[in-house]
Structure formats: structure tokens, C-alpha cells
Design goal:
By secondary structure, the chain is mostly helical. It is 61% helix and 0% strand. One of its GO terms (molecular function) is L-tryptophan 2,3-dioxygenase activity.
């Protein structure tokens, strides 16, 4: 058969490509000739993916618990993929920045709207049984979630709110010692660091510190201010960053709070979380007052941060019970 001009042009481009790399195009064509056609299940490693659920107990709903957390981590990986594109873009524009933050917001929207799987998708009796086999593991130990936080804002905004003013000019290393989530993983009785927290710090601290230092000038807050200072119209970007702020710092922790209230609240004594974390004080957004972009909110909005959401959730859950 005769080659069309389009095929000849592509062969010529391939020849140029492989010549530039010092490679023999004919050898690569041989490989293409003998290679099998790609299948969907091989491309996404489906068999491997479906084999990654290994419950610690025979209780059926534990598998739901595992799969949902694995789905969560995949969404976090998607978000971090966008974070890297934004931070490492050589000629960042408002349009590119805004489009990528929209993607991250879409991922968090999917997460928050699907969290009913965790709130109502398991039998409470089953959960309270299999959870004891998970000690001291906890969703608190999601390193990817902490990395998203680091990429999203100036590191000082992740410091416990009682220490932010005092440590505003401190080094990243000094600020890290007072990062907010450390105070949410202390033993309820003694105030000492839980094993959950000790494990987490041992595995991720160096990685977190490296990322925080790498993102001093390329976190979302810093990049926003750079674009604004250069005269760019950042109004659309500001709207997406506000949505991100609410998703990560209100909607997502509140989804966990709803689940904790559903499964762990027990009158008159609350059931402790598997990691021993103080979830009653750690999860509600109104207590943490963690806000990525305070410059995008009014004083009144920040004062009321998370209050309405928490109160409405408590009322809904108590009525349901």
C-alpha cells in the first residue's frame, strides 16, 4: 500500500527524533511490530489495585473503611499533582493557576460529597469492633494531606493559632515545632505525644520540612501576591482560593467530625479515636481557626469561621439519633 503524506511526515519526524537521541528508528519499529495491544486492565494495573484491600478482621464493613481511605489518598495524589504544576511552572499565569486550583477544588468536592460513605455507609456496631484492630493507626497520619496544606499557604498559617504572632518571623523549623496538628494528637489524659504522632513525625518530618522550605516563594499565597503585585487581575483566582480554603479547612475536617460524632460520641463519655487524638477539639473548624488566605476574608467571616457548619451538623445528627 502507498503511504499517505501524513504517514510519511510522521515517519520523517520519528526519524529526526531518534537520530537526535542517537537511536535506530528501525529497532523501535521492530518493538512496535511485536508488542501486544494495550488493555485497560493492564494500563491501570487493575488486578493489583483490587488486591490492595487486606482487612485485619473478618468483619465485612472493614473493607469499606479501607477502600474509602485508599480512594481518598488517590484524590490527594491528584491534588498534589496540580500543586506541583502550579509551583514549578516557569511562566505562571493567572489563567493557568486558576484552572489548576479549580481542579483541586473538584477533587475536594468529590471527597466531601462522598463522605456519606463513612458517615452512614458502615454499621456502627461493626465499626466499633474492627477499629480496635487498627491501633494506633489513624487517618491523622495522612502525609499527603499535610503536603497539600504546605503547598496551599504560607507556613505560618499552619502554626497553632495561639503561636502565630509569636512565631511570625521564626524559621520554618521553629514553626514546625508548633504546627497545629501536633496539638491534636496528644494523649487526652497526660497531654503527651501519642504513639500515632510519634510514628507520623518519624516518617514524614524531614519530608515536610523540605517541602515547606521549597515552597516559601511558591506556595499558593506567595504566588497569588506575586501575580497581584505584577498587576494581574486575580479576582477569579481569589474566588477559587476561597473555595479551596473552605474545602480543606472547613468542609473536609467537618466531614470527619460528622463521622466521629456518628461513631465515637457516646453519652456520657466519648469514645477515644484509634490514635488517641483529641478529635472533639481537633476536628471542629471553629476551634482550629485554620485559614489559608486571611487576606481574602473579612474580619467577621474569620470570626465566624466554621461555627455555623459545626452547629448545624450537631443538630442534624442528634435529630437523626
Amino acid at each position: 500500500m502507498d503511504f499517505t503524506p501524513e504517514i510519511k511526515d510522521k515517519l520523517h519526524q520519528l526519524q529526526e527524533k531518534y537520530t537526535a537521541m542517537g537511536q535506530d528508528m528501525a529497532s523501535y519499529l521492530d518493538g512496535l511490530l511485536y508488542a501486544d495491544f494495550l488493555t485497560y486492565w493492564d494500563y491501570i494495573h487493575l488486578d493489583t489495585l483490587l488486591s490492595l484491600q487486606n482487612p485485619k478482621t473478618p468483619i465485612p464493613d472493614e473493607e469499606i473503611f479501607i477502600m474509602y481511605h485508599q480512594i481518598t489518598e488517590l484524590y490527594f495524589k491528584l491534588a498534589l499533582h496540580e500543586c506541583r504544576q502550579i509551583a514549578e511552572h516557569e511562566n505562571l499565569t493567572v489563567e493557568f493557576f486558576t484552572a489548576r486550583v479549580k481542579r483541586i477544588n473538584a477533587y475536594f468536592n468529590a471527597l466531601t460529597t462522598s463522605f456519606e460513605v463513612m458517615v452512614d455507609g458502615m454499621e456502627k456496631e461493626q465499626f466499633l469492633k474492627f477499629r480496635m484492630s487498627l491501633l494506633p493507626a489513624s487517618g491523622f497520619q495522612s502525609g499527603q494531606y499535610r503536603m497539600i496544606e504546605i503547598c496551599a499557604t504560607d507556613f505560618i498559617q499552619l502554626v497553632d493559632k495561639t503561636k502565630r504572632t509569636e512565631l511570625s518571623t521564626a524559621t520554618i523549623e521553629e514553626q514546625f515545632e508548633n504546627i497545629y496538628w501536633k496539638f491534636g494528637a496528644t494523649e487526652l489524659a497526660s497531654g503527651k505525644q501519642t504513639l500515632t504522632l510519634k510514628q507520623f513525625i518519624k516518617k514524614y518530618a524531614a519530608q515536610f520540612l523540605q517541602l515547606a522550605n521549597d515552597r516559601i516563594l511558591t506556595n499558593f499565597s506567595a504566588l497569588y501576591h506575586q501575580l497581584q503585585a505584577n498587576g494581574a487581575d486575580v479576582s477569579a483566582l481569589a474566588e477559587e482560593l476561597r473555595k479551596l480554603d473552605l474545602y480543606v479547612n472547613v468542609e473536609w475536617p467537618l466531614s470527619h467530625y460528622k463521622s466521629a460524632v456518628r461513631y465515637l460520641e457516646k453519652d456520657p463519655v466519648d469514645i477515644a479515636a484509634t490514635g488517641g487524638t483529641n478529635w472533639q477539639k481537633y476536628l471542629p473548624p471553629r476551634f482550629q481557626k485554620r485559614i489559608f488566605y486571611p487576606f481574602l476574608w473579612t474580619d467577621e467571616q474569620m470570626e465566624e469561621w466554621g461555627k455555623g457548619w459545626v452547629l448545624s451538623v450537631l443538630k442534624t445528627l442528634k435529630n437523626k439519633d
